[in-house]
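Try this one yourself first.
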């Protein structure tokens, strides 16, 4: 079957999420794939934060029970926020590539880094108080 004479007459495949893929022009595949790899890095970060929450909840670390609970819940909460930040960033970047707009900044990443820093300071404080 020969390709159509007018490629714009060819219907676009229905991709999801539609609010992202139904706007603008398709970007270069390598740019879109780079954006996807960045999102997957956010997902890996979330998994590492959840693994850290499991590790902190272990009695082997000898944190007080309240500290273990607060640190674990804090890490899970930060993981959920990081996942939301990663998804939001992927969406905004993909739309920006499709419409020629400005890609998002790193504000969400700074929030996640700050939250992890606060949790690390809490873990240090729990260690110093416990000993």
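Now uncover the answer:
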């Amino acid at each position: 079957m020969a390709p159509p004479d007018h490629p714009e007459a060819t219907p676009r495949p229905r991709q999801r999420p539609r609010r992202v893929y139904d706007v603008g022009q398709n970007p270069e595949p390598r740019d879109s794939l780079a954006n996807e790899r960045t999102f997957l890095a956010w997902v890996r970060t979330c998994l590492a934060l959840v693994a850290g929450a499991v590790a902190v909840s272990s009695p082997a670390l000898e944190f007080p029970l309240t500290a273990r609970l607060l640190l674990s819940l804090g890490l899970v909460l930060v993981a959920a926020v990081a996942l939301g930040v990663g998804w939001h960033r992927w969406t905004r970047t993909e739309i920006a590539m499709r419409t020629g707009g400005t890609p998002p900044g790193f504000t969400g990443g700074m929030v996640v880094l700050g939250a992890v820093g606060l949790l690390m300071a809490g873990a240090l404080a729990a260690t110093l108080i416990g000993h």
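Discussion: The helical segments are 18-21, 29-56, 65-99, 107-130. The chain is about 70% helix and 0% strand.
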